Amino acid sequence: MAVLVGKPAPDFTVPAVLADGRIDEAFNLAETLAGKYGLLFFYPLDFTFVCPSELIALEHRIDAFRERDVEVIGISIDSHFSHNAWRRTPVEQGGIGPVRFTLAADITREITRAYDVQAEGGMALRAAFIIDRDGVVRSQLINDLPVGRNIDELLRLVDALQFHERRGEVCPAGWQQGEAGMTPSPQGAVDYLKKNAGKL
């Protein structure tokens, strides 16, 4: 499995259903991000089991991602027509409803291969990639198919990345927004641990 952290996020152009429900036959990642943060959220298939719980959880937190200037893009190997049908299916009937983020159609599996998250059988693993404003991958999390992701943890990672960019400090284990960071030096580690080691 390739590690993409620290490398430019592979670009792609594919059909997609946009946040407002329109279909874009040539949705492009680089153009969409252009100075924004990005969350690429790979999932196996539309109309399945764990997947709708994850996408609904994303929808419930979409305003929090937008406040952080993060463009959320769901990706599976389904067609944009399938994505559209899933969005039009009410949650009570196994759909995801009109989620307010893009669903990209990786029909040719080019994105899944480029990010090296293809599972046996061709679908994507449950992968999440956080991309910074320069188009560089800063975090990659990959779960096996039966294990759903924690969307609040993805928000925490975005917060940690943005805190580091603003302050130059690093984020110790379990860091949450509003907590102290650590100066990236031997003395900074000593100072932080003196005050916080018991809470780790």
Your description of this structure?
Belongs to the peroxiredoxin family. AhpC/Prx1 subfamily. Residues 3-163 form the Thioredoxin domain. InterPro entries: AhpC/TSA, Peroxiredoxin, Peroxiredoxin_AhpC-typ, Peroxiredoxin_C, Thioredoxin-like_sf, Thioredoxin_domain. Thiol-specific peroxidase that catalyzes the reduction of hydrogen peroxide and organic hydroperoxides to water and alcohols, respectively. Plays a role in cell protection against oxidative stress by detoxifying peroxides. Keywords: Oxidoreductase. This protein has 200 residues and is of the alpha/beta class. The chain has two domains: 13-167, Glutaredoxin (3-Layer(aba) Sandwich), CATH 3.40.30; 172-200, no CATH class. The protein contains seven helices and seven strands, in the order ββαβααβαβαββαα. The protein has a seven-stranded mixed beta sheet with strand order 2-1-5-4-3-6-7. The longest helix is centred in the last third of the chain and has 17 residues, at 151-167. The chain is elongated, with a radius of gyration of 18 Å. The model has no long low-confidence stretch (mean pLDDT 97).
Q: In terms of topology, how is this protein built?
A:
Layout: E1 13-17, E2 23-28, H1 29-33, E3 37-42, H2 50-60, H3 62-67, E4 70-76, H4 80-88, E5 102-105, H5 110-114, E6 126-131, E7 137-143, H6 151-167, H7 186-196
Low confidence ranges: none
Please report the number of helical segments. 7
What is the percent of helical residues? 25-40%
Series of secondary-structure elements, N-terminal to C-terminal: EEHEHHEHEHEEHH
CATH architecture of the largest domain: 3-Layer(aba) Sandwich
What is the strand arrangement across the widest sheet? 2-1-5-4-3-6-7
**Beta-strand residue percentage:** 15-25%
- In total, the number of domains comes to 2
Structural class: alpha/beta
